[in-house]
Amino acid sequence: MKVIFRLILVGLMLGFLPKDTYAQGEAAVPFLLLAPDSRGGALGESGTGLADNSAAIFWNPAGIAFLTGTELSITHSNWLPAFNLDIFYDYLTFRQYIEDLDGSVTASITYMNFGEFARTGPDSPEILGTFRSFDAALTLGYATKIHPDWGLGFNFRLIHSNLSDQPTAEEQGRGVATTVSFDVGAMWRPERLVIPFIDEDIGRRFSIGMNLSNLGPKISYIDRSQSDPIPTNFRLGFAYKILDDEYNSLIYTLDFSKLLVSKDSIKAKEFYEAIFTAWADKPFKEELRDIVTSTGLEYWYGTPGEFLFALRAGYFYEDPSYGNRKFLTFGAGIRYDMYGFDFSYITTSVFKDGENHPLNDTLRFTISIGWGAIQEAGRGLPRGI
Predict the structure, then answer these.
(1) CB atoms near residue 87 (< 10 Å)
(2) Which contiguous run of DSSP H or E holds residue 13?
(3) Domain spans of the chain, in order of start
(4) CATH tag, 3-371
(5) How far is CA 54 from CA 37, 58, 247, 267, in A?
(6) Nearest to residue 37, comparing CAs of 344, 375, 374?
(7) Which pick of 67, 165, 169, 217 has the fewest CB atoms within 10 Å?
(8) What is the pLDDT of residues 309-329, one digit of tens each?
(9) What phi and psi values does residue 346 have, to the nearest 5 degrees?
(10) Residue 102: how many CB atoms within 10 A of its CB?
């Protein structure tokens, strides 16, 4: 398989190839940006301020600092169903609170399968064999509270990308590359927060999260001169529990995210430069347009620890000049004792030309198991997770 075909495929995986921005069009391994779990996917692909289950290792590892007990989950999704291609991803997460460490250890495995391809010669259409193309990442993390209101989380990630199994034409390297990255997250979930003038305490119902993810060196398939940056991303998220009584809960989430990949007139900058320069390499008005907005609502009915049923909906918006992804998301979930099941659905058909969007009709399915005191009694936003 030619590398150029793989790059086109990756562009489709994310929705549309952007028109004017370098970051999304030319950052490698973009599977690291996919909302991996059904719950976050159903909330418009938001969750940085919520981050109250094992999938927080993606959204904001600091959220796990407010959880105890043990949780395991697995998600599966057939990606780009409109193309009828053998593209899917699987996502496995684990977290374990360890009292002696005063925090939780976390882990996740992400596997993105691009299917089987035929290998041909450089000057002939003759099929010489087949191979499978995939991306994968192993993430290990730790989360702890530094204050009753504050949590911190850190991840280390090993990334492996397998584009092809042999050199292409005159190229010396193979289409295989490995690199590393790390994440830093913070969460503020106050015990007490009084709104001025109306004297209302929204503590335990409000949280703010921040996650700076995929900080790491460029990835190189052929040689260092052709290396590409990985998709360093900044997320800022909010969550607010609008309603909470014995049987009902309603949570609102709002996320803003921005890719921090930047280039000068010659090449992409290293990540430690781009996290600063990517905020100012375009006019301020354009920088604001480059921010992705996602939001969602989650309603729970039932008694935590027994049976719970959830309904979710969300909206994802990306400026037309910077990707033009727009879609609605829906989903549901159930919790019975220690077991949970969630699914999410993406639709673009309500927007102009949306029925032909490659993300339309995408489904995610998640199964989870949680045991132990997986949330602190009466503390923060979690409900039945």
Answers:
(1) 21
(2) helix 3-13
(3) 3-371
(4) 2.40.160.40
(5) 10, 9, 24, 37
(6) 344
(7) 169
(8) 999 999 999 998 888 889 999
(9) -105, 135
(10) 11
